[in-house]
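Reopening closed ticket. The problem is back. First fold of the pair:
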Amino acid sequence: MRILLVEDNLDLGDAVESKLRSAGHSVQWVRDGVAALRWGLDETWDALVLDINLPGKDGFTVIRELRAAGLEAPVLVMTARAEIEDKIDMLDLGADDYLVKPFDLRELEARLRALMRRPAGQTSSVTAYGNLSLDLANRHVSLAGVPLELGRREFRLLEILVGRLGQTVAKERLMNQLFDLDDGSLNALELLISRLRKKLAGASVDIVTVRGVGYQARNHEHS
């Protein structure tokens, strides 16, 4: 896979570049928004890994201009905790996923693999879990062929849980990935889980509470 890495922090950029290269990817690392635009438009990429706070042009501008120029490759944004309130803007501008710093490099690689799983030229990456279908690229869910109306956080919660199907995800981890620094509480998470469970009634995927730890998505077949 050919990956364009845009990160001005030398330590983080070096760590990400080394991790991606060791996983067998071809990486071009640039350190500012102007270079990101030039490289992004001049070459063909399988994915972009992009910091938001960049010299020259910020990450928002880079995403917007590359998408306007016809870039179709998935974009994974790396963002500082202080910038997380902008995540809705990122997704609306054309980012496909985001990671909050500091993050585990293994998770970065796993997210990239998920983004790049869709075949070239296809705008959907549909994964079926029994009668539940998730289209990560288009943020679309259907249950037994019927579209399911999910809010952005509900979709993200479902995406995280089914991405680790059969594994327990800690409440703290879910709160870090779903909420801003100030608006997340255990009550808010439990409310979100409850809403999602109601919408998944009849689905082949159940969300199970693991007491004192977190939540787990489990696959089962309805008769």
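Second fold of the pair, where the issue appears:
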Amino acid sequence: MSFVAKKKLTMFDYVNYSLLALISIVCLFPFIYVFSVSFTDPKVYIPLKFYLFPDKWSLSAYKYILSTNSFIHALKSTVFVTVIGTILNLIVSFSFAYVLTKKTLPGRKILLAAVIFTLVFNAGILPSYLLIKQLGLLNSYWSLIWPTLTSAWSLLVIKSFLESHPPELEESARIDGCTEIGVFLRIIIPLSMPAIAAFMLFFAVSHWNTYFNALIYISDSKKWTLQVLIKSLVIDSDSTGVGQAGAGGDDRIVPQETIRMAAIMLAMAPILLVYPFLQKHFAKGVMLGSVKG
């Protein structure tokens, strides 16, 4: 029987762990405040008071904000952009990366150079806006999807991951009569599930949190994403949109601060709920993609 000696903690370890714990607690305070205020009963809410726990629990703010047309429109817009954008991201990224792994591909070095070039240089905001305008995508959900179908970083990491697969698997599939598309769908995709799960989370979080592109490309308030609506609620003094359709249209029924915090919680909740289920695949996919450079 073998015994593993436990590492003796030094003074540096104690100080390091204490500082990390303190920083973690400080980082948690804003989330605790947002959570507490969002569940605080409007009748006992006191402005500018720090709430560690609600004095009286209530779902009034959530009921109010879920009854507004502006929040429902923003939620639908964000869900559409996230679902469609993530699916297209996965299709384009993995198919393009798979093509780049083929050393016999004509013009492969030129394609790789073009991908790396976009990693170093960016056209800028103004040319991107003019391009979207010329394509007629302004005020369209596709203006938030097409420009971000893939990225150089995603392609290079996925390419590295795909190159770690044994080439004998593809050769045996071709001997059995598989076409290139068949090899990709029946061999490569099943073996790439950890990476797909990891990048699905990357792409979904990116689309769910899309803000700047939605701010400059979408001027119709009915097509705003959640992040733009929350910016309007938190920063703009008039809380555009939410006060227009609530319980009787009177936004004094529920304090604006509790409405803002409830909107922030609702925007964070889907990602917080999905992430734990993908954590295992997420970590595995990132590690496998970084083994071979």
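Update: turned out to be a display glitch only; the data is intact. Residues 237-241, 243-252 have pLDDT under 50 and may be disordered. The first helix runs from residue 11 to 38. Please close again.
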